[in-house]
Design brief:
The complex is a heterodimer of chains A (300) and B (266). Chain A has helices spanning 45-52, 74-78, 96-107, 112-120, 136-148, 166-183, 194-197, 218-224, 236-245, 264-276, 291-298; strands at residues 5-9, 12-16, 19-25, 28-30, 34-38, 63-65, 68-69, 81-84, 154-158, 186-191, 203-208, 211-217, 227-233, 251-253, 256-260, 281-288. Chain A is of the alpha/beta class. Chain B has helices at 2-15, 19-41, 51-88, 92-95, 102-138, 150-177, 182-201, 213-226, 240-262. Classes of the chains: A alpha/beta (300), B mainly alpha (266).
């Protein structure tokens, strides 16, 4: 067993009744990585996370965390994990600080750590406010503080940016980076939007209809995307029709025409065709397929 | 075992300012104040009675409603409130993903509800005794200070406590399984009314229904006291309905643990 693997599942399957929700998923999450677990809604992300936390039970030798079988080492493994599943679980009648105090009491964490966590998630000023009156972003940050309170090695976050405004998303992103860079944590984060996590993750796993369809580094995902030729003309619709008539696979996206890139000669050929037919060509550029589009095409 | 005590402490910490905890103190206090005011303003109706009979009338005013209705409803409310804190905060998934044994979380919650029930009944007995003496100070013609009822009153409340453990365990399991208010409250209320009817009708097998136990406990106590040929205030703490209540409590607690242990948190 690879000691660098913090999370490992071996052909993990899970079903609710007759419905197969996770189908032969083999995750490999390395120490010190930020692993983005992506998939559309209902793909099996939360179910996988609940299995990793032993909230949903599977057989032996399927799920390994820190190199140990979850089935037989539940307490030891859970003591190394901090988690935030779906919306943060917070007692709304208690203040932010009291929520942390209650968790500290349960996990025998020194009280000094509470102030440290409040500082880390920028909630010191609002520590005595009832958690029920917190904004969604503040609740998410409190949820992360609760997850980090016992200083776990692994942080599992299920859609932590769900419902947050752009500032909230940036704050969570910065916090996660800080945790990995400064505190050496491993983070497993799920999302249904690649754009929300692509700027912070080192590794990506894409799940769709219960199957893990891609797993690798962000660079490996980039290499899957094909180059495209972006064309801007004075009349996009007629230009596209002309190109299609001549056998090119052209499509309009926003204010550009996209054609799969083949070669430089091929670009010149297209330019010449458009000009000869009195289309004004404003620009011709080669680009890579947007990762979000790639993600969407993979999970179609 | 440490996980159990930590969970118990946490139960108190998170409920200390909620109605789940406060109801155990407020209900006996409010009821005592109201009944005491009633007796103070209508003291002339009991003033000629013997000290023992004055206490009987005074404590009977509490126990009549307590045994039949208030105690079961209070238990239904407390078990619901203690579990609802977790349902409302969607906390179960978070609690069960902490490095704590599942049994410690489950049993700490159960023991905490048992503690709330014990606290409430102890306060009831204490407030009744204290109110009687206070009434005597306010109206010296009353004779509450001429008879000591505390021993029998605490014993009777202990009997009520034991008789209520069956209801408590069933309601605890209901409110653990169902997040919505209506199911545990609705079923509990219907069973309580059913219990009152069967106990009042004197049905032979009423003792098999946990919701009749507090009432049956009071009835058996009354029967023994009234039939005591020496006129002594004596009754058995353990009677048929108490044994059934304890057995139901133990069984339901055990079943509940296995249900929770095997249950997936969706």
């Amino acid at each position: 067993m690879d000691p660098e693997l913090i999370i490992e599942t071996r052909n993990l399957s899970y079903q609710f009744g007759n419905q197969l929700v996770i189908d032969q998923v083999s995750l490999n999450v390395r120490k010190g990585s930020i692993y983005g677990f992506l998939g559309p809604n209902g793909a099996g992300k939360t179910t996988t996370i609940k299995v990793l936390l032993n909230l949903l039970q599977t057989g032996e030798k399927k799920v390994f965390l820190f190199g140990k079988d979850l089935h037989n080492n539940r307490l030891e493994i859970l003591s190394g994990i901090g988690s935030l599943i779906e919306q943060p679980a917070i007692y709304s009648h208690l203040s932010g600080k009291e929520n942390l105090l209650n968790r500290a009491l349960l996990l025998r964490v020194p009280h000094a750590r509470i102030h440290e966590m409040l500082d880390l998630v920028n909630l010191t000023e609002h520590a005595d406010k009832k958690a029920g009156k917190y904004s969604l972003g503040m609740k998410q940050r409190l949820g992360i503080a609760l997850a980090l309170l016992h200083d776990p090695k692994l942080l599992i976050l299920d859609e932590p940016t769900n419902g947050l405004d752009p500032n909230g998303i940036i704050e969570i992103r910065q916090l996660i980076r800080k945790l990995v860079e400064e505190r050496g944590k491993t983070v497993f984060i799920s999302s249904h939007l690649l754009s929300e996590v692509e700027k912070m993750v080192t590794h990506i796993g894409i799940i769709n209809r219960g199957k893990l369809i891609f797993q690798g580094t962000i660079e490996e995902l980039h290499s899957l995307s094909e180059k495209q030729l972006e064309i801007q003309t004075d009349d996009l619709i007629n230009s596209k029709e002309l190109l299609c008539r001549k056998g090119y696979r052209a499509e309009i996206l926003s204010d550009t025409i996209l054609i799969p890139y083949l070669s430089e000669d091929h670009c010149a050929e297209i330019n010449s065709l458009l000009v000869k037919n009195n289309h004004k060509v404003y620009s011709l550029a080669v680009s890579k397929q947007n990762l979000e589009n790639l993600f969407l095409s993979i999970t179609k | 075992m440490q996980g159990f005590f930590l969970s118990l402490q946490s139960e108190f910490y998170k409920t200390r300012s909620t109605l789940a905890f406060l109801s155990a103190i407020l209900l006996p206090l409010v009821l005592c104040i109201l009944i005491s005011i009633g007796f103070y303003t209508h003291a002339d109706k009991i003033i000629l009675l013997s000290p023992k009979m004055q206490w009987f009338r005074f404590s009977g005013a509490f126990l009549g409603v307590m045994g039949s209705l208030i105690l079961p409803i209070l238990i239904i409310f407390q078990t619901f409130s203690v579990n609802n804190i977790e349902h409302r905060a969607e906390m179960w998934k978070s609690l069960y993903s902490l490095p704590l044994p599942k049994w410690s979380i489950y049993s700490a919650k159960y023991i905490y509800v048992v503690f709330l029930n014990a606290l409430c009944l102890t306060l009831f007995a204490s407030f009744i005794v204290a109110s009687g003496h206070l009434l005597n100070v306010l109206n010296p013609d009353l004779k509450f200070n001429q008879f000591n009822i505390s021993g029998i009153l605490f014993k009777l409340h202990l009997k009520l406590f034991l008789a209520s453990l069956g209801i408590l365990s069933i309601q605890f399991l209901f409110s653990l399984l169902w997040a919505d208010f209506l199911k545990p409250m609705g079923i509990g209320f219907v069973l309580t009314v059913f219990g009152i009817i069967t106990a009042n009708l004197g049905w032979k097998y009423a003792f098999t229904i946990p919701y009749t136990h507090p009432m049956l406990a009071l009835q058996s106590m009354m029967k023994q006291v009234l039939n005591n040929q020496k006129g002594k205030l004596e009754f058995n703490l353990l009677s048929q309905e108490i044994y059934v209540s304890l057995i139901v409590a133990a069984l339901t607690f055990t079943i509940g643990y296995f249900v929770i242990n095997k249950r997936s948190i969706r």
